[in-house]
Amino acid sequence: MADNSSDGFLPVPEGSIYWKHNYAADKDAGATRPTILLVHAAVADHTLWDAQVDFLNAKGWNCLRFDLFGFGQSSPSKEYLSAPGPKSYKPCPQIDRVRQTVLGPDASLIVIGLSMGANVALEYTLAYGAHVVAVGICAGGPRGFTGANDPAEDALFAEAEACLAKGDVQRAAELQVHIWGDGPLQPPGRLAPNVAAQMLRWNLDIAARESEKRGGLAFEMVFEGEAAMGRLGEFEGPMLVSWGTFDETFTTESMKAVVAARGPGRAVVGREFATGHMINLEVPGEFNAFVDEWLQGHELHKAR
User: Start and end of every AB hydrolase-1 domain (predicted)?
Assistant: First the structure.
């Protein structure tokens, strides 16, 4: 990782959000461009993007990341945990508080997310579009898409939920690695061992939080307004869309639907990678080149 960085914790009503800001190797270039905000998946934390941050910093981009509430170093307060009833929060206002606190009230962003992070990136873009010049949606499933999975895929999800319910954190984490790493219909072990090991480390922590109702998807995300899938035309800036061949059916079909919904002549670039769900982890070089080509092709360094 680049050494030129700052980080901290931002208080929010529900607890605190951890953020990290990595600066471009060329400080002058970074200061004149939008900041790239990277939003992680529900099976990872902000370190999901380490390889992209190194690459983008070298290319002259400042990068901002954070741990979504209940993930990584972001944490709920004792008061939030002890309050009666289901736990929920609104990620988009939290993200904008991070943007304003770290970058300033007028700062512009290029927002890129993977999986759940892609959905959050799109929702944030629709809610705070005045500050977003471009958005990247990778292996997501926007709110409002109504596709379905193969029954064998759904059976794996049900097994993972059952493991969490009975406190079998190890098996739940292993299933998450298989589903989101190998691909739910692929043979176990398809994923490179080093990537699988990293995913298991993340998911042992996440599964423990979810089993104990103190983080992860045990806290429900709440988004406002109509479903994002029907509002894609509201954002007129450039859009990057990507998906993996071996990913679950719902995700691959939703990403193809996003590209189709944007229609001909709209600023959208879509690509399928020969990967599972975790595109940027499996083929970081290919993914970085894809993002770089998109940034250059739309001259987003001039979009500030």
Answer: 34-282
The low-confidence residues of the chain, meaning pLDDT below 50, are: 1-2
Strand duo 63-66 + 15-22: pairing: antiparallel
Contact between 61 and 90 (Cβ < 8 Å): no
DSSP calls for 156-210: HHHHHHHHHHTT-HHHHHHHHHIIIII-TTSPTT-S-HHHHHHHHHHHHHHHHHH
The CATH number assigned to the domain with range 5-145+216-302 reads 3.40.50.1820
Confidence at residue 269, expressed as pLDDT on a 0 to 100 scale: 86
Query: Could you count the other beta carbons within 10 Å of the beta carbon of residue 42?
Result: 23
- The CA distance from 209 to 157, in Å, is 18
For the chain, the structural domain boundaries read: 5-145+216-302
d(CA 170, CA 156): 15
